[in-house]
Design brief:
alpha+beta; five-stranded mixed beta sheet; 11 helices; flat
Length: 514
């Protein structure tokens, strides 16, 4: 339906239109510059109308969005069209707004130009508009604007073909024949020798037309969401499968329905030449692997003619071998005495239908992951995965993993945000109150495990002293505080305990005081 019936032109809009025509005619007669001041009144009225139309557009889109959220299937596609319309309208509107500002800059200078292009001090300037819109180069802004208006007009017509004639008139960019049968381009008509104040109003008029067209078209698109509820002129057959992916040994299930058929009739469903049940549910054993295709038709009686009609359909589904995805989130090996974390899933199967068994290790679930901890003597572990399909357990596959002891970490003296494994160290860093020993695999290590330093010794000038835990004793600090520059401090016999419970001896840390 046409948007004009939904959004009739208001008396205010008609008044603005008449003022626009009268002032344009007066401008053509080259009247005094005082007349140009009247264009400010028209511009103000147009902006007032723009604010009102913008408010209506925003309100309509908000209501449209609510309708989309309430019924995405029915209203979603039409809302998407309205959203795209809003995006394109804003793009053209904003380009024109910048066009107006550039005219203001060309007229009054960058320092005095009104950012909103509402107040033009040199509104009778006939050179500024020409120089900006029609410069002596190929990329004329006036030509670009013409192209953008034509693209926008074509887009509106595509959305609502019934208003093609109206949009061709509103957004007319055609050339005109002037005196002497000379053809004058649209951009020359708009901007050549045109006073700045008049050009601004003409551009505001186009902005106003954009918002009005946007308003009418949004209303048209909103009405289209209910059009299908009132007029049904096409019937379609649909195949609705439970899944297009089936594991061999499973079952493919799909429902075939006829849309918009009389509920008092019971259609007949045929697949590959054979009639199936009255509910239109097609089931077949999934034996072959790969893409499986089928076709058929729905036979029903046309309510209008009383004759039997056939609606064909076709569909396809894929049958795959049983498969399982097993990924170790820490490493591609499994470590003895460590809680190795695995993400295990079967494509197309819900996680609560997946079962995991492990030989040579304990297994449990935590936070969506499978925690697998090999025994102290395990050299290999086998993970076996099965899934519940149609009430029966089916093997999905298995994978073997080698089991290794956790690798030995490195020892570091951590002081502030720095870690020292050897080399030079300042007295302040060495004796920092927070300095302590840590054991880790370093910044490039694949694992980040909680090793605990249990004890270590410090060699100062050949004298060896021991500390429990991971920090220097007061005696060790006192000895190191008396060292001179260049003295060597060796932290040795470092012992740590890993998450597997084993105590290991780590490499020493030689440090030179600088």
């Amino acid at each position: 339906m046409g948007g004009a019936k939904n959004c009739p032109e208001t008396p205010r809009q008609r008044m603005i239109g008449m003022m626009y025509l009268v002032l344009t005619a007066m401008l053509a007669l080259n009247v005094s510059t005082d007349v140009l001041k009247a264009f400010k009144l028209v511009d103000d009225s147009l902006h007032s109308t723009l604010e009102t139309t913008d408010g209506r557009n925003q309100q309509m889109m908000s209501q449209f969005l609510s309708a989309r959220n309430d019924n995405p299937e029915k209203n979603g596609p039409w809302y998407d069209k309205a959203a795209e319309l809003t995006k394109r309208s804003d793009s053209l509107y904003n380009y024109i707004q910048n066009f107006k500002y550039q005219i203001a800059v060309a007229t009054d200078g960058a320092s005095k130009a009104d950012p909103e292009a509402r107040v033009i001090q040199g509104n009778d300037n006939r050179d500024a508009t020409t120089h900006y819109a029609l410069p002596d180069r190929a990329d004329k802004p006036g030509v670009t604007l013409k192209r953008m208006i034509e693209e926008y007009r074509a887009y509106l017509t595509e959305l609502d073909p019934n208003k093609a004639e109206e949009y061709n008139t509103i957004f007319d960019t055609g050339d005109k024949v002037e005196s002497g049968a000379q053809m004058i381009s649209w951009e020359d008509q708009m901007f050549h020798d045109m006073p700045s104040g008049a050009a601004i109003v003409l551009l505001t008029k186009i902005q106003n037309d954009i918002r009005n067209a946007q308003n009418v078209t949004i209303q048209y698109l909103r009405n289209q969401t209910d059009a299908g509820d009132l007029r049904v002129n096409k019937l379609n057959a649909y195949v609705i499968p439970n899944s297009n992916y089936v594991i061999r040994g499973g079952k493919y299930s799909a429902q075939i329905i006829l849309a918009a058929i009389d509920s008092t009739q019971t259609p007949d469903y045929y697949v590959n030449g054979a009639k199936i049940n009255e509910q239109g549910i097609y089931e077949v054993a999934a034996t072959g692997v790969g893409l499986q295709k089928y076709s058929g038709y729905i036979a029903f009686q046309n309510p209008a003619s009383g004759e039997m009609e056939h609606l064909p359909f076709s569909s396809e589904y894929s049958v795959g071998e049983p498969a399982v995805t097993i990924s170790n989130t820490d490493l591609n090996v499994m470590y003895r005495g460590y809680e190795n974390k695995f993400a295990i899933s079967v494509p197309g199967i819900a996680n609560d239908k997946v079962h995991v068994s492990v030989s040579g290790a304990s297994v449990s679930q935590r936070g969506g992951l499978w925690i697998i901890k090999p025994g102290d003597s395990s050299k290999s572990v086998t993970i076996s995965v099965s899934a519940e399909l149609d009430g029966k357990m089916q093997s999905m596959g298995s994978k073997d993993y080698r089991v290794k002891a956790l690798p030995k970490p490195g020892a570091y003296l951590k002081s502030g945000d720095k870690e020292y494994s050897d080399g030079n160290i300042s007295r302040g860093a060495l004796l920092n109150a927070d300095s302590r020993l840590i054991a880790s695999y370093g910044p490039d290590g694949l694992l980040d495990l909680p090793f605990r330093i249990t004890s270590f010794k410090v060699n100062v000038n050949g004298m060896l002293t021991e500390a429990r835990g991971n920090k220097f004793t007061s005696d060790q600090r006192d000895r190191m505080s008396k060292l001179k520059m260049g003295a060597i401090v060796v932290i040795t016999d470092i012992r740590a305990q890993g998450p597997d419970g084993r105590e290991i001896r780590l490499s020493p840390i030689p440090l030179s005081l600088n």
